Amino acid sequence: MKALIKGTSEIGLELVDMPNPELGNNDVLIKVSAASICGSDVPIYYWDDVWTRNVVKSNQIIGHEFCGTVVEVGGNVTNVKAGDFVSAEGHLFCNECFHCKTGEKHICPNLRLVGFDYPGAFAEYIVIPSRNIVQIPLEIPPEVGSILDPLGNVVHACSKLPMVNSTVFISGCGPLGLMATLVSKLSGARTVIASDISNYRLDLAKKLGANITINPNENGFSDAISSFSADQGKIDVHLEMSGSANGLINGLTVLRPGGYSALVGLFKDEVTLNISDLIIAKGLTIQGIIGREIFTTWTETFRFLERISASNYIPLISLITHKIPIENFKEGFELMRSKTSGKIVFVF
Predict the structure, then answer these.
(1) Do 126 and 16 belong together in one domain?
(2) What confidence tens digit (pLDDT) does each residue in 24-37 have?
(3) What is the pLDDT of residues 79-106, one digit of tens each?
(4) Domain tally for the chain?
(5) Cis peptide leading into 295, omega within 30 of 0?
(6) Is this prediction's pTM over 0.90?
(7) Domain that holds residue 120
(8) Which residue, 288, 307, 337, sits at the end of a domain?
(9) b/e 201-240 (16+ beta carbons within 10 angstroms → b)
């Protein structure tokens, strides 16, 4: 099969031919239909992040956001069959530890991560343990099926916050921030303010329902927020999607006293904060978000999809700006780096 691997400790990936993965008794073999680039895949390509260098194995097949069709199942598998349309929970939990046994599989200390230290989805075939398989309704387009993993991250974040009738500030309009714009509106937010340094992505945020967009490099961030607050009141909820120190600090600064913040974006470097002023004195509630609550978030995500199914999933399809053959992977990663894309999907 063709597979995209991290073969060397330098910028770039390699598309190689390699044997199909072996199927275990408790596994499912899937022919990948579509797989999307996650923001966490970008540091693997550019090899510029310490955490990534420590976790990603040599010659690792990368990629973890995908969907496909089941080709074969192991002898012990009863929950899925050949021909099923599926995705998978990419956090491979141990099912034995305290967290797994108390409903917190997503923070299992023994997690293996598909596409990081377990063979990933940027390949023609992938093998996944059957307990991690997620069935997808056949009417969902493959490109949408490939982005259910990150959509679940956003649904997880919004489920932890009081979204109804709130004013929401989103820092970062990469793919996660764009999804957060859509999910916030459909979760009952009154007003969504989206901030990013890419005008291309701010335009996408407007199309997905953002009421106000701010480029902090151009619009005078403080003035724009002050003007809004003077007319319409304080910001209730902050969704941090940028992985940027400035994005985090701006979001915590504009939150009203007693406000809520969910942190989803991953930071390459340590961040220095005035915790006393920004968090403690304001009585903020801060929620860290990692992955999806397994499998509660998947159920909530499919309920969200039901709400947009009548539109043939157009809101989600509209944030997929590029569908690229896997052979053109360099173009995909360069587009992500340039911030002139929404979600990018590889097709096979």
Answers:
(1) yes
(2) 999 999 999 999 99
(3) 999 999 999 999 999 999 999 999 999 9
(4) 2
(5) yes
(6) yes
(7) 2-149+292-347
(8) 288
(9) bbebbeebbbbbbbbbeeeebeebbeebeeeeeebbbbbb
